[in-house]
Amino acid sequence: MRLSRTHASPTLLLRAGCTALVSVCLAASSQLPPNEVKISTDGEYRRIQANGIPDHAPGQFPNRHNPNVIGPQSYDYKVPLHPKLTEKPVPYRMQPFGIGVNGVVFDPFAAEWWQGDPAWQYEPHGGAIDLGLDSSNAHVQPNGAYHYHGIPNGLIEKLAGDQKKMVLVGWAADGFPIYGPYAYSEAMNAESPVKKMVPSYGVKAGTRPAGSPGGKYDGAFVQDYEYVEGKGDLDASNGRYGVTPEFPQGTYYYVLTDAYPYVPRQFAGTPDASFARRGPPGGGFGPPGRGRRGGPGGMRPPGPPGFGPPPF
User: Fold this and answer.
1) Cα–Cα distance measured from residue 24 to residue 206, given in angstroms and rounded to the nearest whole number
2) For residue 138, what is the enclosing H or E element?
3) Where is the signal peptide, in residue numbers (predicted)?
4) Which of 224, 284, 291, 303 is in Cβ range 3.0-4.6 Å of 217 for a Cys bridge?
5) What span, in angstroms and rounded, lies between the C-alpha atoms of 44 and 19?
6) What residues have CB less than 8 Å from 67, skipping those under 6 apart?
């Protein structure tokens, strides 16, 4: 396996002697600073300041597939208190989607790419790459930022125990709330039983086109998926309008799901610019791809940070 240059050395060290580092890894996890998060209102905004340290036990970092150590951050995000839906969804890439109530960011995209024209982006949950995610679907960026790629099981357990109920887990960059995988079976009826929400995405049929990684669509890449209206409970932004425990009159809200897109891959409203400025950097340490013409290729880093359409 060829590694991206900036991560080759620590990863090789881990793979060469991971067993010798187990005690060091465990010690690093046990010596984390305490979780710090402050959520306040500031004019027309909700302000979230946090150090990004989880308030639940993380997995072992560094590990075989993730050479990074969890470290404190200096997050200072703001989201609209009264968000509004946009006429069309707002796509984004390589920036946090939102932040948890515990101050850990939701950052669903991987920084691993199949280098072609256009580039194809690996899906963290697609099976082709192993990013060393822990039981909370999280891992660590090179700058120490622990972040979620999916349902934050540790956070949800802390908030709800083993109960299946609707749980507010964070705020999206556009200001709308983010909930765990369970929501009312009838969107506008808080007395209806909760059920696990089903996303409306599926893997495309057939084979990938020329100039791509080739082979059948199998979920390995973000481009392998498509939205199928009516397939599940949620819209293309993995959300819906309904009542919630915190919004008994109703609101648009996002849902984290255990199938693609896991964490929403587009906004239903306008994301605040503070997320574009302060997102954790990407990092690539997965398997290389192949060049467009079959020659040596590999991962390439994403384009400049910021909101905008995905590069495919």
Assistant:
1) 47
2) strand 138-140
3) 1-27
4) 224
5) 51
6) 7, 10, 11, 13, 14, 285
pLDDT digit string, tens, across residues 193-234: 999 999 999 999 999 999 999 999 999 999 999 999 999 999
Q: Is 38 helix (H, G, I), strand (E, B) or coil?
A: strand
Summarize the confidence of residues 271-296 as an average pLDDT. Answer: 51
If you search the block for the tokens 């580039």, which residue do you land on? 119
In the prediction, which pLDDT does 301 show?
40
Furthest C-alpha separation in the chain: 59
Q: When comparing pLDDT for 289 and 272, which is higher?
A: 272
CB atoms under 10 Å from CB of 56, counted, come to: 18
- And the tokens for 9? 């050395």
Residue where the block lists tokens 């881990």: 14
- For residue 116 the two structure tokens come to 């072609």
- The pLDDT > 90 percentage for the chain reads 76
Find residue 270's DSSP bridge partners: none
Query: Is residue 131 within 8 Å of residue 11, measured between CB atoms?
Result: no
Q: What is the pLDDT of residue 29?
A: 54
Are 121 and 312 a contacting pair, CB within 8 Å?
yes
Q: What is this structure's pTM?
A: 0.84
| Interval 123-143: pLDDT, tens | 999 999 999 999 999 999 999
Token pair 């009312």: residue: 184
**Lookup: tokens for 304:** 């400049």
Length of the chain: 312
Distance CA 236, CA 216 (A): 23
Mean pLDDT, residues 146-169:
96
Q: What is the mean pLDDT of residues 177-184?
A: 98
Whether the predicted pLDDT of 44 surpasses 50: yes
Alpha carbons 290 and 41: distance in angstroms, whole number: 48
The answer to whether the beta carbons of residues 268 and 237 sit under 8 Å apart is yes
| Cα–Cα dist 265/85, whole Å | 16
